[in-house]
Amino acid sequence: MKVVLLAGGLGSRITEESRFRPKPMVELGGMPILWHIMKEYSYYGFQEFIICAGYKQHIIKEWFADYFLRTSDVTFDFTQGRNDMTVHTRHCEAWKVTVVNTGLNTMTGGRIKRVQPYIGDETFLMTYGDGVCDVNIQDLLRFHRSHGKIATLTAVLQEQQKGVLDIAENNSVRSFREKKEGDASPINAGYMVLEPEIFHYLTGDTCIFEQEPLQTLAEMGELKSYQHRGFWQCMDNIREKEILEKMIASGKAPWMKWDE
Length: 260
Known about the structure:
The chain is an alpha/beta fold and 260 residues long.
C-alpha cells in the first residue's frame, strides 16, 4: 500500500529554517522530519512512498538521490586514474520513493489530485510532512477497513488546534472546520486512510483538502475518525522543533519505535 506525504508548502511559520529548505526537510536529530515520518510507516511494513513536493522540491530529490551513499560505507579509489567505488556495508531502507513536483502554490487537495496517476485505483495512506505520531498504523488500517467509508483520519486532543472535528458516538465525523480561538475539540492529526473515490472530490490546484472535500465527506457520512490517545506533535515553528529535538536527545521520542 502506498503512502502519500504532503511536502510542498512554503513553511511560512518556520522561516528560520524553511528559507533554506522545505519544512519537511528540516532536521530532527540529524535527519529530516520527513525521514522520521517515513520510518514510522516503514516500522509497520509500508515501504512505498509518494512525496508531493513543491517549494524547493529539488532539495528533496537531491537528498534521496544521495541517500544510498550517505547511509553506506564506501571506498573511493582514484589510484588507477579513475573513480572506482566499492560499497561495503549498506544501511539503506528498502523503500521505493517517488518525488512528484506538484507545483509551488498548489493547495493540499490539488497536490493529492496531482499524484493520482501514481496511486491508481487502490486504497492509500496519507499524512502531512511536518508532524510525528506514535499511532499504530496497522490498527488504523484495520479500523478503516471495518467501516467501509471513503476516508479515515486520526483524531487527537490538543490545545493548539488544527482542523476541528465534531465526532458522533459511532466515530462518524459529523462536521469538519478550521480552528477557532478557544476550541477544545479533537483535531485532525493527519495519518489518514483514503479510498480512491476521494479523487472525485478533489477539483484542481486550488482545492484545499481540509475544507470542502472533508466537509462534504463528513456531511455524507463518509468520514470516520480513529481516535488516538497517544503522542502526536507537529512542527509548525522553532519552539515545536526544539520540543522534538529535546525528546530525541533524552532518548524519549515516542514515535521512534524502530531499531537503528
